[in-house]
Design brief:
Blueprint: E1 8-13, H1 17-33, E2 40-45, H2 93-97, H3 135-143, H4 152-169, E3 174-179, E4 183-187, E5 194-198, E6 205-207, E7 209-212, H5 223-235, E8 238-240, E9 258-262, H6 266-275, E10 282-285, E11 291-294, E12 301-305, H7 333-341, H8 348-371, H9 380-389, H10 395-404, H11 414-418, H12 429-447, H13 454-474, H14 480-499, H15 504-515, E13 519-523, E14 527-531, E15 536-540, E16 549-551, E17 553-556, H16 570-577, E18 583-588, E19 591-598, E20 606-609, E21 614-621, H17 642-659
Parallel strand pairs: 1-2, 1-7, 2-3, 7-21, 8-17, 9-12, 9-17, 12-13
Antiparallel strand pairs: 4-5, 5-6, 10-11, 14-15, 15-16, 18-19, 20-21
Helix pairs in contact: 1-4, 1-17, 8-13, 12-15, 13-14
Length: 679
Amino acid sequence: MSGGPSPATLVVVGAGPRATGLLERIAANAPELWPEGRELHIHLVDPYPPGPGRIWRHEQSPLLRMNSMAEDVTMFTDETSTVDGPVRPGPSLAEWAARFSAPDPHRTPLSPGLPAPPGQGEAPPAAGPDVLADPEVLAELRTLSGTDFPTRRAQSAYLTWVFRRALADLPPSVTVEWHRTTATAVTGPADGPQQVRLAGRAAPLTADLVVLAQGHLGAAPAPEHRAHAAFARRHGRFHLPPEFSADADLSALRPGEHVLVRGLGLAFVDLVALLTEGRGGAYRTGHDGTLTYLPSGREPVLHVGSRRGVPYHSKTRYRLQGPTPPLPRHFGPAAIDALLAEGRPLDLRRDVWPLMAKEIGFGHYHELFHGHPGRTALPWPDFAAAYDRLDWYSDAMTALIAEAVPDPADRLDFEALDRPLEGLSFATPHAFQEHLRAYVARDVARREDPEHSADLGAFLALLSVYGHLPRLVAAGRLTARSLAHDLDGWWHGFFSFLASGPPGFRLRQLLALSRAGIVRFTGADLRVDTDEATGTFTATSPTLPGHTVHATALIEAYLPRPSLDRTADPLLRSLYRAGELAEEVVTDPAHTHRSGLLAVSPADGHVVDPLLGGRHPRRIALGAPTNTRAVAAFARPRTDAPAFRQNDAVARALLRTLGGRTRSAAPPGSGHGFVRLPT
C-alpha cells in the first residue's frame, strides 16, 4: 500500500433491506467504477441483523406473514430495470426457496457466521441467528409455492441470503464490518471527514461519506395519542399508540376486555393474529369449507373501525389470464413531461388523478378483454383506440365502457371502491355485522377467482402509477394543499387500501372471529372520545347512528407517521435539533404542508442541510424517512422498481466519489478490524 492511495471509508447507518440493496448495487457497479486494488471499508451500523434488519428480523412471532406472494418478492434487477449500471438478475423469494425443496448436491450451503475480529465491529453473520437452521423456517421453505404468502421469518432468511450474496460479489479490496449498535450522531464539516458516534462506544467511526438507511422508524406519540395515554393512566386503562406490531406489548390486555381498535390495515391484521392465535386460539375448517374459530378464553373483545370502516382489500391469488399490459400507457414519462410543461401549480385530484385513473383502468380493461373476451362486446383494437382518445371523467368514456363491458361488475368504479359504506346506515349492530361479513366474503371470493383477473391488471397498473408519481412530486409542482390532502392523505390511503391488503386467508379468519364474537365491526368515519365519568374510551360512527361503544382499552392499529420532530431515531433527532437537516415543508399562498419527512435532493439523495443552504456533500439518506416517497426496499419482479433505480444511481455516485479521493478520512492506526468475508 505504500505510495498508493489510502483506503476510502463509507459508513451506512442501517443494515436492513435498503442497505442490502445498496450493497448489491455497489458490488454490481464496482467492476466498472472502482479502481482495481483500491481499498474501500464499509461500516454497517445496526443493532439488528444485517439483511433483514429490524422489521424483517427472525426474532418475531411465526404468526406474522408477508402481504405479498412469494413469487412477487425480489431484491434483484431484471430485464425491465432502467438502471445505468449492470443488470444482475437473481431469484425471487419463491425461486430461492425452491432450492430447499429437494437435496441438491451442487448447492453450496451458507457458511456459518465468522467470529468477531479484533476492534469495534464484527463480521456480518450468515443468518444471525441462524434462521436456516430453524426447523420451522426450513419446513416452510421446502413446501413454499409461488402463490403462498410467506412468514416474515422466511423473508428474513431470504434477505440474509441476499446480503451474503452481495458480500460475496464485492471485489477483494472492499471489506464490510458490522457494528451491532445504534448510531447516535454524525458531525463533521461539509468539506472534511464525518464522525459517526455509536451507542456504547467511546471512539467514533470516521468516514468519507455517510449513508442514512434506517428504514421505517418509530416516533414518540403525537399530542392526540399523549392525551389518550394520560386518560388511560388516570383510569388504569390500556392504550397503545401507533406501533410496529412485532414490537407491541399486548400483555396487559385482559381476557374478555373490551378494546377499541382504530385502523383496519396491515397493522390491524397482525395485531388480531397476535391477540387470537397468539393467545392459544385455533381455526377449524368444516366439511363445507367454512372456517370456525375455537377460542382459548384468553382473547379480548375487539371493536374495530376506521375511516372507511372496512378491511383493506384482499390480495389477489391468481395470475393474469392474458398477456401483461404494456405499461405505462397514459401515466408515464411523456404524460409527466406534458403536465410539467404547463408551467402552473398542479392539483393532484383535478390535474393528475384523471391520468392516473385512466392508466389503472387501462390495466383493468386490457386484462378483461384479453383474458375474458366473452365478457366484452367490442373488439379490443376498437375499444383501445377509443379509450386512448377519451378523458377518464367524460360522458363519452362512460358510454364507451358501458357499451363494451355489459356487466357492471366488470367495470372499474373508483368511487365505489374507495368508500364502500358511503351513505349507508344500519339500525342495529347485528344488521351491520351481517352486511360487512357479506362484503368481506365477496371481496375474498373475487380476489381468489381468476375469472376476476381484471383486478390484477388494475393492480399492476396501480404499481406502475405509484412508481412514476415520485418524479412529478420531486418537480415541486403540486400545491401545498394538494400535497397534504391528496398525495400524503387520500392517495397514500387509497393505494394501500387497494394494493397493500392481507392474504385472503386472513380475511376468512376475520370472518370466523366476527362470527365468534371476538371481532365486532363499528363502522366508517370512526370517532374516538373519552368518558371521564365511566373511565372508558368511546366510539361512534354514522354507520350505526345512536350506538356508542364503551371500552377499557384503545389500540391505534396503524404505523407511526413520519415525524422528524418526534422521531425515535437518535441520529436523526440530533441532526434535526442541531438544524443540520430539514423536514420537507411545502408552502404556497394558500397552505403550508409539513410532511414529517426528511428533505433530500431528489436527484441524488443528499441530505438538505439548512446551515449550508443546500445539499450536504457527504451525507446521503435513502428510503422510508425521506421525501423521495414510493421507494419500497424490495419489489415485485419485472416492475422496474424505483428503489432499485435509486440504489443504482447512489451506488454509482458513491463509487465515483470515493474512488476519486486521494486521502482517506480514517486516521492511521484506527484499528477497526476490517474483515473480508469468504465467498
